[in-house]
């Protein structure tokens, strides 16, 4: 289990960009409870403050929202595994289920050995035939999107699913430097 670090206190003046940097699962938490940030009609701007977002969304009490974000973050911490912990698990269980939720291009360029790229066909196979009590580790590039995939798997009964903290990037830095690191450049 990863150590839970003390994070700076949130306030109504916290900008959404800072909130999402400190609490990567905050957008998922806000959408799940308050329907904030999941689509264009309920979205927010990066430079908005948490107070502005709460006010614009039926004047939700800021302290209630902060408490929800922090408890959701604590839950996210419990479903994560560090690169070192994954390395130890793979050494003791080389058949461990390791899933990559990045793009096909990313997977082909750089992957943790033994991992499978998640596709619709693979999802159908997993839900139809995999043991729901066996550990499953999911990773992405830097550990943010994989949390959503882990939540999805847990919601479908795969209770032992975990997210690789920091994604393949952390694994490359901390465990296997032979795995190429990369940056994703967004065209705009």
- Largest sheet properties: 5 strands, parallel
Fraction of residues in β-strands = 5-15%
Which geometry do the CA atoms define? Answer: globular
CATH architecture of the largest domain: 3-Layer(aba) Sandwich
- CATH fold naming of the largest domain: Oxidized Rhodanese, domain 1
Distance between the termini: 38 Å
Give the CATH superfamily of the largest domain.
Rhodanese-like domain
Structural category is alpha/beta
Can you tell me the residue ranges where pLDDT is under 50 for at least 5 consecutive residues?
none
Radius of gyration: 18 Å
Number of discrete helical segments: 9
Count structural domains. 2
- Widest beta sheet: strand line-up: 1-5-4-2-3
State the total count of DSSP E strands.
5
Mean pLDDT: 91
Just give the CATH class of the largest domain: Alpha Beta
Helix content: 40-55%
Query: How do the helices and strands follow one another from N- to C-terminus?
Result: HHHHEHEHEHEHEH
SSE inventory with pairings:
Layout: H1 16-22, H2 26-34, H3 50-56, H4 62-78, E1 80-81, H5 83-92, E2 97-100, H6 104-109, E3 116-117, H7 120-129, E4 136-139, H8 146-155, E5 161-164, H9 167-174
Parallel strand pairs: 1-5, 2-3, 2-4, 4-5
What does this entry look like structurally?
The model has no long low-confidence stretch (mean pLDDT 91). This protein has helices at residues 16-22, 26-34, 50-56, 62-78, 83-92, 104-109, 120-129, 146-155, 167-174, and strands at 80-81, 97-100, 116-117, 136-139, 161-164. It folds into 2 domains: 16-77, no CATH class; 80-174, Oxidized Rhodanese, domain 1 (3-Layer(aba) Sandwich). The relative contact order is 0.14. The chain has 9 helices and 5 strands. β2 (97-100), α6 (104-109) and β3 (116-117) form a beta-alpha-beta unit. The chain has a 5-stranded parallel sheet with strand order 1-5-4-2-3. The chain has 188 residues and is α/β, with parallel strands linked by helices.
């Amino acid at each position: 289990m990863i150590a839970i670090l003390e994070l700076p206190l949130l306030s109504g003046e916290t900008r959404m960009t800072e909130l999402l940097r400190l609490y990567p699962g905050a957008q998922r938490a806000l959408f799940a409870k308050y329907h904030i940030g999941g689509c264009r009609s309920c979205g927010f701007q990066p430079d908005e403050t948490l107070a502005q977002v709460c006010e614009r969304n039926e004047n939700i009490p800021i302290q209630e929202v902060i408490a929800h974000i922090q408890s959701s973050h604590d839950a996210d911490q419990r479903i994560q595994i560090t690169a070192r912990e994954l390395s130890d698990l793979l050494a003791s269980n080389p058949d461990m289920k390791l899933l990559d939720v990045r793009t096909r291009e990313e997977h082909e360029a750089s992957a943790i050995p033994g991992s499978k790229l998640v596709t619709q066909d693979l999802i159908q196979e997993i839900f139809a035939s995999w043991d729901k009590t066996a550990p499953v580790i999911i990773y992405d590039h830097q550990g943010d999107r994989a949390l959503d995939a882990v939540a999805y798997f847990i919601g479908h009964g795969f209770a032992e699913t975990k997210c690789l903290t920091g994604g393949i990037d952390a694994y490359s830095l901390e465990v296997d430097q032979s795995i190429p690191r990369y940056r994703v450049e967004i065209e705009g």
